[in-house]
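re: ur question from earlier - yeah i can do the single chain one, its not a big deal. heres the input i used so u can compare w yours
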Amino acid sequence: MRRRSAQTPQRGRHTRQRLVRSFIELVLTHGYEQLTPAMVACHAGVGRSTLYTHFAGLAQMLEASLEGPNTVLTASTLPGARASDLVPLLRHFQSQQHRNAAFFRDPVRSIWARSLARSIAASMRRDVTCRKPRPALPQDLVVPAVAELQIGLICRWITGRSNHSADTVALALATSAQRMMATND
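and the output i got, formated as tokens:
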């Protein structure tokens, strides 16, 4: 019995990861607008009820698939964050630009911006417990603007004919986000 109960959470994590991987593969091949929960469940080899055990719907699956990029982008808004930490993510986006175009178009882009804004706001709440100063602008104004700025800049860089390096874009992302999040001293 003990062994089985120890495996259950691990099996649940594995199923959740399989659902997210299937979701990403299907978004890349079919686009977000064409996707249904039934398609994701079938691709992952689970029933729809299992999908709904882990996720409320496609938007929540999208947010789960963006946790990695959101973590890196959120960290770049913190004082002292290194722009170089963004470079691997940007290079990945650049190398996969034809495959991942769906992530840079609406409705995915809008959902991503809201998800990133929630991640940044959560980071700010954690910073408050460390007694770090708040931005000069109200959080409800600055956080969504920073999220939109980051995704917009990446989107323009990926979809445009920019000859700027990932290093240059990373520096622009980190610097602009940190300045927007800065306090009045």
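Residues 2-30 form the longest helix (29 residues). not sure if urs matches, ping me
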